[in-house]
Amino acid sequence: VERIKSDRLAALAPRPDSPRRVASLVFDRVTFGAHPYGHPGDGFATSVGKLARADVLAFWRRQYAPAAATLVIAGDVDRATVEPLLEQTLGAWKAPAPRPAKVAPARAHAGRRLVVVDRPDAPQTVIVAGRLGVSWDDPRYAAAEVINTAIGGSFAARLNNRLREQLGYTYGIFSSFWRGRLTGAWSVTSSIKTAATVDAVREALAILDDARGKELPAAELAKAQQLLIRGQPQDFETNAGIAGAFQRLVVAGLPLDWYATWADRLRAVDAAAARTAAHELGADLDLIVVGDWKVVGAGLSALGVPVTRVDADGNPVAP
User: Fold this and answer.
1) End-to-end CA distance of the chain, in Å?
2) Edge-to-edge strand order for the sheet containing 170-179?
3) pLDDT value of position 13
4) CA 191, CA 125: separation in Å to the nearest integer?
């Protein structure tokens, strides 16, 4: 236990010097708040340092049990072959079923927020902008996936086309969903030239607001749908991919035939539904900026979004 704690502390030590890790941590803390997902999975030096062997064993015994586990197997095997092997290796595993934890849902705030981590003399600014996202089983799931693909989910999407191809502010800017068992988030991430930081934020917000105010043209809607549909088979190209695809269904509590109707749900998204999804994604944004405050601070403060400054662990600091 002490060796692993030492390894973990060594891995945490350089985190404050990694702008992307800092931006991701601060985004989670700001967006999820007091929800468990607001705490970094690798912890803080103070929390890791306090762990004892008894804590680790107690957590294992409380959370891990056969009744809470699902084994997903993909390969050239059948059930008759696998079950005896499982009985030999896991048959003696006995533990009471864990009690589901009572977790209050994460709640979106009202309005946009700008949170800045000062990184003096940084040549680039890392930006993460986003909000809580729709879950796997949400009726808005398909529309959200389609509008995300059009806005920032592909190389040819609006954000990358404008900020990289036309303006040269970044090597790339993309958006995506992350979904856990309890909730999830949608975010846009990029590294921007320091001098272009404020202009890049303005452009990104303008693109989001445009998608909220206007329906996608028919050709752009169809392109986003086809990118998603044609990309799905890649998830099933390998045994690891197949196992991972069904593991996601298990975690989300979805039926095992969920993928069979996925393409049809995407095809059913019309321009109005995509615009509604864009309106929800673009509202109540958290904008996390890790960069040189003395260069970008005045411009960010002039955007009309409330500004909070925090340190690399997401703790508030004096202006």
Assistant:
1) 40
2) 170-179, 184-193, 124-132, 286-291, 113-118, 307-310
3) 96
4) 6
